[in-house]
Each structure stands twice: as structure tokens, then as C-alpha cells.
Amino acid sequence: MSTTNGQWRGVIEEYRDLLELPEGLAAVTLREGGTPLVHSEWLTGLTGGEVWLKVEANNPTGSFKDRGMTAAISVARHEGAEAVVCASTGNTSASMAAYAAKAGLKPLVLIPEGKIAAGKMAQAVVHGAQIIMVRGNFDHCLDIARGLARDYPVALVNSVNPVRLQGQKTASFEVVDFLGDAPDFHLLPVGNAGNIAAYWLGYQQYAELGRATRRPVMRGFQAEGAAPLVTGEPFPDPETKATAIRVGNPASWHLAEMAAKESEGRFAAVSDEQILAAQVELARHDGVFVEPASAAGVAGLLAELSAGESYAGRTVVITVTGHGLKDTATALETFTDIVDTVVDADVAAAAAAAGLA
Ligand code: AN7
């Protein structure tokens, strides 16, 4: 991996030769990617394998979406677009708004009414997006976004735009570049299913190039109330507290199924309780605070271990997709007594309250 004076250049410059993008494309970048693989002593201990977290919160807008967005916005500008549109459960809109601002494009965001985490909403607003709330879910928003891009002069930057996957697949490259080979297993949350498709694309490409000797088994985890890839049927009314993956009819359904099939992987569902418990456990054991949806992969691993599945001796990468600060309201819902005690400004009183005295 090359750098300029030690600074990571962003995924287009770091991996340009490996991405299907227009020749000489000028990158609109916030230096996304180059995110850490953090070793999880906790999950390594539980599994008897080696478990790594690919911490995508460390992207400029706090989620993995920036990898695909640098590519999509660069191409939109390259092709002369003046406005860009996306449907979003929150993170795509936050990312699009930031990159559109950098590129001087007008961002238009379609989001499901009342179901967007406050942090993500703040990002879209502050970056200057025009926000349209739709009485409906993400799937309705995506239909509208597609319709707008078809009939009006706005470029669609959802992951149905193949350029997005070109950027997002760089996450697999980074995993292999760091570990020296592909892991045995790759676990991640799945909503609209672009990310699992992109990872699989990246792993396949590296294997074909001889940069990896193997391809991982891909395991995708959905929320029980929004698990179409598990049941095989769209969910007309998807529901989960993990709003980022509240998707009933994933756009990349077919690609995601191919990734699971070709890698001998699978999809499974986890409950909101399992997701929120995993979020807290991950924060407390590993010091990594992720948003609820991002904990679905960890929740999946824990559920599989309980069901007798073994990862002993295996290398496992789990992508944690977005930052915990995106949605503090949901994170704090389970905590009734946030502040233990209120005391006067006095050491003895604090010591007594803390049980030290
Ligand atoms: C934190 O922002 O779909 O399976 O519109 O924000 O590639 O959809 C977000 C998805 C996982 C699922 N984790 O990824 C959107 C949006 C987080 C996310 C997913 C999302 P995909």
C-alpha cells in the first residue's frame, strides 16, 4: 500500500488499478478507507480462533458508505452531473451529502419518515442536503430515487449504481493486505445487500490476481424483522431498532445470494435484543462503540457459538459498519439509570457515592 508522505490517499488513489472506473478520473475524496483491523481479544477468547474487527466507523462520515461514495460522486462529477440523489436509511445520505458538498454537487436525500437516527440526520442537514421524508420505508424511497434519476437530471448514487461497489470492494483488499491472506470467514450485517456483494467482488478479484490464496466463507446477518434473504421473501413492513438495516427488499438481492452460494456461506437472522446486547458487549469488552445495525455480525457470531457452531482455529473478520455516535438514542434505551448518583462538589461525597470510602 503506497502513501504520500505517510498519509493514506483514499481508496481511489490507493487502489486505482484494481477499480473499474473511467480512465483518469479525478477523485473526490475525504481520504476514506485505510480503516483499522482491530484484534478482538474477547471474541478470540470465546471462539478459540482469531477474530478481527474491520472498524468502518473510522471513515470520514463514520460508516463504510464513504468507500463507495468517493467513487460514485467522482464519477457523477466526471459525467457532468449537477445534482445527486439517494434513498437512505441514514448513512448513505450522510456520506452522499458530505461528498456532494466537496464536489460542489446538489445533494437530494429521500428517507423514511421518522426512522432515521439523529446523528445521520444531522450530518445530511449540516452538509446541506435537501431532505425529503417519505411516508413509507426504505424500499419506497429507493423506488422514488430510481424514478427521479430516470426522469430528471439527477444522478443516482445508491449501491444499485455499480460504481459504488467498485469503491466498497476496497475493504476486502485492505483486509487481505493486512492479514497477508483472506480470512476463513467474513461476517457482516446485511440490509440492502450492497456491502456483502462488494466484499465478495473484492475477495474474488484478489484471489484471481494471486494476492490471496483463498476466499472466505461469507456469512450475512439481518435483523429478524427485516430478514428477506433468510426467508427468501420480501418483507413488506420491515421493522427493527437497527434502522440502518430496516430494508424489506434488498436491491442487491441476487448478488448477495451469489456471494453466499459461491462462498458456501449463508444468511441468518438475529433479534433486536441480540443486536443491542452485542452492541453493549462489544463496547465493554473491546472498546469499540458501533451503531445497532453494525453489531449484527457480532450478534450473529455469538448466536452461532450458542448454537454449537465452531470457529476454533479459524481466522474470522467481522465488519462493524458504522459509528455508535450515529444513534445514541437507541444505544441508551436499555439503560435506565445513566447517572449513578448526583453529589455535591466534594471529594469525600464522590468517594462515598463510588463506594470507595
Ligand atoms: C451501519 O444508508 O442502506 O447491506 O441507506 O448503514 O450494503 O445495505 C445503510 C446500510 C449495515 C447494510 N450497517 O449494508 C443506507 C443503508 C450500516 C448501514 C448496512 C447499512 P448494505
From TrEMBL:
What keywords were assigned to this record? Amino-acid biosynthesis, Lyase, Pyridoxal phosphate, Threonine biosynthesis
Cite the Gene3D superfamilies for this sequence: 3.40.50.1100
Cofactors, names only:
pyridoxal 5'-phosphate
| MF GO annotations | L-serine ammonia-lyase activity; pyridoxal phosphate binding; threonine deaminase activity; threonine synthase activity
- What reaction does this catalyse? O-phospho-L-homoserine + H2O = L-threonine + phosphate
What Enzyme Commission number(s) apply to this enzyme? 4.2.3.1
Q: Does the keyword Amino-acid biosynthesis apply?
A: yes
Q: Which residues carry this modification: N6-(pyridoxal phosphate)lysine?
A: 65
Which CDD domains does the annotation name?
Answer: Thr-synth_1 (cd01563)
InterPro entries cross-referenced by the UniProt entry: Ser/Thr_Dehydratase, Ser/Thr_deHydtase_PyrdxlP-BS, Thr_synthase-like, Thr_Synthase_bac/arc, TrpB-like_PALP, TrpB-like_PALP_sf
Single GO biological process annotation from the record: threonine biosynthetic process
- The residues that the entry says bind pyridoxal 5'-phosphate are 91, 191-195, 321
Pinpoint the Tryptophan synthase beta chain-like PALP domain residues.
28-322
**Which PROSITE patterns does the record associate with it?**
DEHYDRATASE_SER_THR
Q: Which family does it belong to?
A: Belongs to the threonine synthase family.
Q: What does this protein do?
A: Catalyzes the gamma-elimination of phosphate from L-phosphohomoserine and the beta-addition of water to produce L-threonine.
Q: What is this protein called?
A: Threonine synthase
Please spell out the taxonomic lineage of the organism that makes this protein.
Bacteria, Bacillati, Actinomycetota, Actinomycetes, Propionibacteriales
